[in-house]
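> forwarded from #structure-qc
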């Protein structure tokens, strides 16, 4: 590897009007530092992906792109979620650069980890995961639930890197193969490891958000976890099958016990035990049906083959619009006029 690689930093943005003016210069400074150290090409860029923001995020991106050629932006036609926004940026970049680094816009991820990521790429690694070494800024509840999420995902068969979010370096060669994964239900943390290729990790400490509010409350985190599990693993259905077999044997044993007690004449009215058993089995059945329904729903969505993202505008292109022009025809004056 002799020529300096072209790096594109992919930054998904959703209602980041407050934090974007603070973090955008930081991304550009990091590009300049890496270029001065001759680790990357001076043709490297920062690509902001507007995920259907309702504030001035897209306006700010366009203003920055007009002032600095290193800033590029794409705008999605509507909000499609963080994972789809990252995917849109990566797919847009893969034909125009050698390596990409995806990172959130909030400034919590340490930009200095990019130096080590690029160094690992020079050493031959084509995927470099940014892993949080500590969670000092998280509350006890958030830290416990987040770490429990990674452990649960791995236990259920989803191959993800512990404490890794979406801060990672991926080479263009890997992205070209990653483009062959056509799932509509996207969970990048689990899909990227499936591509393979030499990979490693770098560790960094996560800081506080510089401005604005987090767009990943507990409700969205739970939805992301459930989507990741059901998109990458069928182990929950296997567990349901196992539970069904166990409860079937328990039910058979209970039936034998009830028959024996009836023959011996020692039966008694036991409405409490009956209610408990019915409630327990009813709850288990409803949960099982719900999980199976999630898989059926995902199969339904995959069969539709809907686009995962639609880019409505790029800062380096003029918006495609159809202008209706009035056609003026010269009228020949009629006789007598």
């Amino acid at each position: 590897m002799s020529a300096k690689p072209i790096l594109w930093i992919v930054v998904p943005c959703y209602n980041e009007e407050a934090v974007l003016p603070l973090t955008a210069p930081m991304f550009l400074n990091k590009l300049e530092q890496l270029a001065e150290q001759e680790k990357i090409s001076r043709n490297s860029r920062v690509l902001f992906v507007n995920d259907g923001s309702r504030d001035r995020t897209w306006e700010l991106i366009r203003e920055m792109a007009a002032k600095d050629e290193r800033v590029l932006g794409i705008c999605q036609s509507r909000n499609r979620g963080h994972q789809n926004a990252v995917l849109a940026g990566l797919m847009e970049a893969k034909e125009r650069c050698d390596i990409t680094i995806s990172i959130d816009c909030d400034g919590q991820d340490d930009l200095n980890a990019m130096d080590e990521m690029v160094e690992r790429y020079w050493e031959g690694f084509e995927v470099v995961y940014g892993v949080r070494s500590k969670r000092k800024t998280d509350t006890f509840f958030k830290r416990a639930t987040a770490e429990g999420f990674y452990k649960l995902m791995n236990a259920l068969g989803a191959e993800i890197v512990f404490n890794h979010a979406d801060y990672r370096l991926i080479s263009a060669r890997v992205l070209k193969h990653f483009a062959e994964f056509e799932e509509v239900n996207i969970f990048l943390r689990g899909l990227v490891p499936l591509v393979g290729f030499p990979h490693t990790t770098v560790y960094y400490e996560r800081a506080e958000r510089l401005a604005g509010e987090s767009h990943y409350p507990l409700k969205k985190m739970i939805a992301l976890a459930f989507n990741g599990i059901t998109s990458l693993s069928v182990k929950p259905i296997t567990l349901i099958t196992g539970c069904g077999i166990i409860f079937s044997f328990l039910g058979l044993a209970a039936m034998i016990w009830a028959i024996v007690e009836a023959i011996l004449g020692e039966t008694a009215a036991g409405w409490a035990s009956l209610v408990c058993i019915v409630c327990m089995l009813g709850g288990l059945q409803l949960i099982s049906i719900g999980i199976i329904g999630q898989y059926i729903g995902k199969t339904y969505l995959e069969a539709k083959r809907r686009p995962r993202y639609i880019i409505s505008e790029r800062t380096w292109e003029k918006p495609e619009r159809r202008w209706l022009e009035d056609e003026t025809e010269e009228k020949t004056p009629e006789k007598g006029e």
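QC bot note: Strands lie at 7-13, 45-50, 71-76, 99-102, 127-134, 164-171, 199-205, 311-314. The longest helix spans residues 271-304.
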